[in-house]
Structures are given as structure tokens and as C-alpha cells.
Amino acid sequence: MNFLWFWLVAIMITGYVVLDGFDLGVGILHLFLARDEQERQTTVRSIGPVWDGNEVWLLAAGGTLYFAFPWLYASAFSGFYLPLMIVLWLLMLRGISLELRNHLDLGVWRSLLDGLFGLSSFLLTIFYGAALANVVRGVPLDANGYFFLPLWTNWQPGVHPGILDWYTVIGGLVACVSLTLHGALWLTIKTSGDLEARARRIVRPLWIVLVLLTIVSLFTTMHVRPTSLANYYKYPVTFLIPVGVLAALAGIWILNRAGKPLRAFLCSGSYLALMLVGACWGLFPTLLPASTGASRDITLNGAISGPYALQVGLIWWGLGMALAIGYFTLVYWMFRGKVRTDQLGH
Amino acid sequence: MNQEVMHRIQFAFTITYHYLFPQLTMGLALLIVILKTVALRTGDQYWDQAARFWGRVFGINFVFGVVTGIPMEFEFGTNWAQFSRVSGGVIGQPLAMEGVFSFFLESAFLGLFLYGEKRLSKVMHWFSALLVFLGSWLSGFFIIVTDAWMQHPVAYTLTQQGHYEVTSFTGLLLNPWALLQYMHNMCGAVITGAFVMTATGAFYLLEKRFEHYARIYVKVGVIVGLLASIAIIFPTGDLHGKYLARNQPATMAAMEGQFKTESGAGIVLMGQPNEDTGLIDNPIVVNDVLSFLIYGTTKAEVKGLDQFPRDQWPTTLPLLFYAYHIMAGLGTYFVLVMAIAAFLLWRKKLYRATWILWALLLSFPLPYIANTAGWMTAEIGRQPWLIYGLLRTQQGFSPTVSASNALFTLLGFMGLYSLLSILFIVLIYREINTGPAHAPTAAAEALAS
Predict the structure, then answer these.
(1) Residue B97 and residue A316: Cβ atoms within 8 Å?
(2) Longest Cα pair distance anywhere in chain B, in angstroms?
(3) Residue B449 pLDDT > 70, yes or no?
(4) Beta partners for residue B280, in sequence order
(5) pTM (2 decimals)?
């Protein structure tokens, strides 16, 4: 049961990253790719019907984390207090700017909200990547299982690091570039004409940067956390995960060149999912490693709720997920195909 | 600076601001279903158009509600880590259910309701309005279940590690406190919706614009508003009060300003509680009423604060007293103003009675104040407990988040929310000024004729 819930939460977080990932990427890209109001409308409309549904995965994952692993939730959320508050503000600004851009017919208003939307999307991806890197690197848990991190100290991932150090910044860049690439592939599926061509062209430089960053992040992770490969050596078959990461990267390049954007998009989704699964597997069964000594690690069995709660949870969670998947299939089906420019301007 | 106080103020501020939006959307959701039902049964296009207008207002409020709701889920962990650690095994359950069920339901069908009208049949469009209503009320239910467990913990056990774990899922969801509080609370939400709808109708009538729609709004608003205003006092408020007196007697005593235990206790209509002397200054008291309200006989004994050690008294006693009296006083006013309006409606004089239209127009902020005061009564009344009888508030906040960090982020929220308020007012003003369409579209009129 404990094992199951670990992976259920991991799957929900992965689902959030893969789904909200492309609309974050579109948020970053629309500042550079869309040249006029009509193209802006097209980019916004390509994610308009789905973005808030995607973001619900964050809330659902947060709630599930809270109920399944209260200890982890309490320690991590209070310890990452400052970055989480910044993430909150960014999420709020992003939601407002996206939903309200078409409510007032003013050029300045739209430019302001478009800028806000792009900036908040960009900063969110950096913070998400840095957050994951913080979890992999470990945090200075005290004897009571709490910690508090400043935003940055001396940029070194030592015993008392900051949220941002050279390692977590690499994590932030990996997230930013990979999600931007994910968003670019989404745009090549959903748009047409010049916009599609520009989106397709930007895939290549992003891909090259991402390959370099992926390799750098794999090696620096082994340097910062030498034990991260222990599980892999124990079960060598799991080396298929990093192999899958590389295969997905290759797939993005090949399929994008071959003009198969949907498949390339699925490859970049697989890349994101496998990177996350690989990181989780490297940690398992630790949930949050302590930089202050392994005895203070927050582990799966120490942090999980009681068996009754988990059993009941499994029932309603399964029901809820079935409904959610049905709903998502419906929405994505209803808005399938390219954004039709003849329907612009309401 | 006091760490506990800063965390409390931050949570109070963010949740008070957040609840300005859901109380309207939950109330409007019901009213929209009513408008849509009449439109469906009579085929009257005006009612459909009237519902469409409120759908747009709902949409704007929904966005602000969702956006300001995200911090609430975070703050359990960021600001109240010790509380989350010991109680996540219980209240994590309803909170996660809200995330998993209600949001998907609401956002899915709100999208269909707002943008899918052309693609859906009339019955399906009505059905999506109904599901938006169910989704938003379900969302409210899960939140009330969470709060009710903190007010009146049930269906839990204490583990060896000192954590609370749920023992009965149905026991948790059917907590009697939750059911009472939910009914009372939803009446409050409907009152907000009804007063806002009535005020908008009164505004249009006074302005002599969109008068056909204005009459629909005033009529529906006054009827629903009167029913909900009565129901919030009797039976829901009455039942909730009786349950409160039995399960949180110290809270009840502080709310009523009952310092001394007495039989035949009177009810304090006005006055200022004085914690030092243990008296109400400048009181206006009606004898025996409190005993009767709680126990059904005029001579029953009501426990006063003197029965409880000082450290069990609600920490901000005067604030609790005033919040409760504002809530109760406004509740009485709601019945009064809506009853007069309903009487004039029945005598077919309401639409021309300028004085009452003015009163209805100016009353629209009052339900917001009453609901906020009611929420404060519940939450301040629970003090000094975070989980009543189990966990003190001073044991619940995040130990590693300092008072100055909490203050810093509180200021951030204040800045951000000021900005949101301006945006909200501009957008709502624009919506109301544009109004429901001047007349049904040509196609709709062709259908109607």
C-alpha cells in the first residue's frame, strides 16, 4: 500500500508536469513567436480550453500529497516557504493574465497581460526545476524533521544550501528548456502557417541545448548525490529509464524533422515523465533526503498516513481519476486539430 | 513580533479575501439554475438571456475564486506545518477530495455552460448549469467538513507517533457539526447571491434601463432572498446555536457575553464586553431569552465564562462578541427588508417603490459583511484551540517560518490582492454597465414567437 501511494503521487506530479508543462512552454514562447494580435490570439486559444484543467492536477497532487504523506507535506511546504510563496503569486498572476486578457479591449492592457503571462510562465518553470533539484540534493532537516531554506547563500550545495545554488540552477534551466520545447511542439500541432513554421524552427536550437543540459544534469546529480545510482545497480533493468530518456530525445529530433509533430510531442512528454520517474527511483524509498545526515531523511514508511485512510483514499481517488480522465479525453477531443483562425474574435 | 499572531493574521486575511468570491458563486449557481429552469419550462427567451448575464458575472467571480483559493491549500503546509503533520491523516482526506472531484466538475461544466450553448441542446445546457451548481456546492461541502473536524473532531484515533488518523470515512463526512454548519453556510451564500441579484435589478429600475430584466432579477432575488434569510435564522442558525452551546460552551458564553453562569439567562442585544470587570458595559438585555433559545425553557441554566479557566476563554473576546452580534443583527435586517420587499411585490407595487429599491440597492455589501462576520465567529470562537480540545493554536504553526517571513508574505498578498480588487471592480462594473442584452436576438425572437 505504501509503495502504491508513493507511485500514485509520483504519477500525479508527472501528469501535472507533462500537461501543464506545454502551456507553461507556450506562455514563454508566445512573447517571441507571435508577431501580431491574431497570432497572439491563436497561441492563447491553443491552450485556452485546457490550461486550467491542467493546473487542477497541481491542486489534486498537492491535496493527495497532504493526505497520503502529511509529514512530508508539512516539512517540505514550511521549509520551502519563500519559493512556494513566490510560486503562488506567479500562479495567481498567470491565471489572471490569461483569463482576463480578452475582457478589456485595450492594446496596452493586452500587452501588459501578455508580458505578465510570459514572465510568470518563465519564472515558474525555473522554480519547478529548482524545486525538484532541491529534493534530489537534500535539505538541512533538523532533529524534528523541519528545515528552512533561504533563497540563496553562497551558491554551493553543501550542508546548509540555499534554494538556489549552481546545481539547482541547472535543474531550473533543464525544466525551462524542456518545457519550452514541449510547448513549441504543442504549437506545431495546434497552429498553422507562419506561426507553425516558426515554432518548428525553434525546436532545433532548443533540442540541442536540452541534450547538453540533460547530460550535464545527469553527471552533476551523480556528483551532488553519489548514492543516486544505488537503486539502479540493485535492479540493473531500471537502467532502461535513462536509456528511455535518451531515446525520447532522439525521437523528438527525428519525428520533428519528419513532420510528425504529434508523435514528437508525445516523445517530449515521455522525456519529461521518464526524467521524473528516474529521479524518483533514484531517491526511493526516501521522500526528502537530509543534507545533515541520512538518519534524518524523511522516508516513505515514516511519513505515510494510516492504512485505513489509504484504503478509503484508494476508492475515491480511483473514482475521481476515472472521472478526470474521462473529462480530459472529452475536452482534448472537442478541441482537437488546429486552432481555427476563422473563429477568432469571438 | 509574535509568530503565532502573524501566521493567524496571514491565514485570516487570505481566507477572508478568498471567501468573498465563492459565497457569490455558490449563491448565484442556484439562482442561475432557477432562471434556466423557468426559461426551459416557459420557453421565455428573456429568462434565458437573464441567466446568460449572470453566467458571465459568475465566470469572472469564478476566476478570482480559483486564483485566490490556490494559496489556501498551500498555507496548511507552509504556515501550519505542525498542525498539518498531526492532522493530515484526517483532514487531508476531504481537502484532497475537493481537489480531485469538485474542481474538475466545476471547471468542466462551467466551460460547457459559458461557451457550449450553441453546441448543446436546451436540456443539456440546463443540465450543465445544474452540474456547475452541484460542483460548487460539493466544493463547499468538503471545505466545511474540513473546518467542522477542527471545530468538533470526530471519527479519529491518536497513533503512537502522536498523529490523528481517520477511523470512519462516513463518520468524518457525516459529522453532525458539518451538516449543521453546511446548511447554515449555504443559506448565507444564497443570501449573498440573492441580494446581489436584487440590487442589480433595483439599480436598473432606478436607472430605467433593461427594465424587463430588472423585474426578473428583483422578483427572483426577493423571493429567494426572503426564503434564505428566514432559513438562516430558523431552522439552521437555531440548530447550529443549540449544538454549539452543548459542544463549545465557552465559545457560546463568549459570543453572547455571558460572563456568569445563571438560570433564566437574558440575551444581550447590544453592549461592550469588558474582560477586566467581567461585565457587559451599556447593555440592552432581554430577560430569559438565551435560556429559551438554547434549552427551550426560560429558566434553564446557561454556563458562563466563569465556569472555564481563563486560558480556555477565546483569545480575542470582544472581537468574537462583535462579530457574532453583527452577523445576528444583519440576519434580522435581511428578513425585515426582504419581507417588506416581498409584501410590495405581492401587492404589485415593488417596481415603483423608489425608497425600497434604494434600500435593496444599498444593501448588497451587507451579506458579504454578515458572512465574513459569521466565519470570524466560528474561527475566533474556536480559539484558543486549533483543533477543539485537541491542539492549541500555538502548537500548530510552522516552527521554522519566522514572524518576519510571515509578515513579509502577508504584505505581498496585500499588494497582490489590492491589484486584484481593482481589476475585479473594473470588470464587474463593465459587465453591469453593459447589462443583459437590450432585447433577445432576432433568431431567439423568431423562435419565441
Answers:
(1) yes
(2) 74
(3) no
(4) B273
(5) 0.92
